[in-house]
Amino acid sequence: MPERRGDMTPEHMAEDGNRPAPDAHPAEPAQPIRPLDSIDRDILRILQSEGRASIRSVADRVHVSRANAYARINRLIDDGVIRGFGARVDHERAGQGASAYITLKIVQNSWRTVREQLQALPGAAHIALVSGDFDVLFLVHTPDNRSLRELVLTKLQSIPEVLSTRTLLVFEETALHPDLSPVSTPP
Questions:
Q1: What is the pTM of this model?
Q2: β-strand 124-129 against 162-170: which pairing, if any?
Q3: How far apart are CA 38 and CA 100, in angstroms?
Q4: Sign (positive/negative) of CA torsion 47, 52, 53, 55?
Q5: pLDDT tens string 30-40
Q6: CA 77: distance to chain centroid?
């Protein structure tokens, strides 16, 4: 059977752990969300902590056949539950020693425009539209404080839709792998 984009053979799981999931097509109607069972959640936990785990390893650890594990992983990819596979990076060792969360207040209804401009900035790691005292929470990693200062004072504040910023330096961080909570069923 020819491989189609999104299929993950056992070889790809072991050799290409950074293979991205298929792109979402916003013009297509959204698929109904299928509930996850305990095996699906176990597979997700394994892949979150070990993105390069082989199909055989995943199957053995969740006590299903390789074919079943393969089918489940492909379904999780096709359903958009798994959005991709990537490496966890130590930013300091990668030359990005200064990190900061930056809060932004933006012009009303300018989210999409601002998001596109933030994505293009060097060191952009995470962007979230939030509620509360500010509109956007933006995480950046830069080589040093001078680069961070340049990013905030020159690049961010030159975006016309950005009304104000507040920079919160990150002194230390710990990456967590969120535990998937059980799927609740309505009473």
A1: 0.65
A2: unpaired
A3: 36
A4: positive
A5: 667 889 999 99
A6: 14
